[in-house]
Amino acid sequence: MRPVSLRNGWQSRHREMTDTSGHQQYALDDDLSDADLERYARHVILDELGDEGQIKLINSRVAVVGAGGLGSPALLYLAAAGIGTIGIIDDDQVDRTNLQRQIVHSDASVGSPKAESARDRLTKLNPAINLVIHRTRLTDGNARTILSEYDLVLDGTDNYATRIMINDICYGLKIPLISASVVRFEGQLSTFTAYETGPCYRCVFPQEPEPGLVPRCDSAGILGPVAGVMGTLQATEALKQILGLGTGMVGQLMLYDALDQSMQKIKTRKDPACPTCGTPA
Predict the structure, then answer these.
(1) Which pTM value belongs to this model?
(2) Is 217 in the active site?
(3) DSSP code string of 169-194
(4) What is the pLDDT of residue 218?
(5) Lesser CB count within 10 Å: N end or C end of the chain?
């Protein structure tokens, strides 16, 4: 799997960090500080990562659309992994019904903007990273401007129209898109890089389902840890994409069923007539 191209370059920025004693220190992003080596020790000792891999993570910029059931575990693991800049895009507020699965928030966050609640939690987890909050809903008017600032996008939204819009923007910007969805006891996951190879989201899901055909979590329910599984898988795929590790989910759709703890992969193909990435486009 080809690694994500980091558009800002390894040596183009300085990064502010907080060491264990609470003092501020600065280091070039082409080297790991003692604080980095301590925090990311279990990454660095992996032969597949080492210092170089961790530096790639520190210099990467990842946007997470939605700080909800999928975004919560994804954000936590991206922050813990040391992703240097994380964009949190959400215009909603924390509701008590969210807390059963949206684990980045707490009871004290109820009524607060989700983007700010997530930022506060992630800052406590890893104060060395840069967190950018976007308290807005992605629209045709702002999505391209916002997403163009990132190297990779995780889609944790729950409606078809927004998913298609994010797909189209990521395809146009040539940004990898890792998409997941959950409902009841089931989840789905795939990665889309149709500008290079494989299908885009619209190839796999060309039409919006009929109203009522696909249930939503607020009406059908969801087992909380199912969102945790799929959001964690999104974070895993994001790190793999950045590092160029293993086999990615491009051209494959993973289906997860919690009731029998099964996972299966279905091959997906590009649609030559796709209005986003097909020949007519």
Answers:
(1) 0.89
(2) yes
(3) HHHHHT--EEEEEEEBTEEEEEEEBT
(4) 66
(5) C
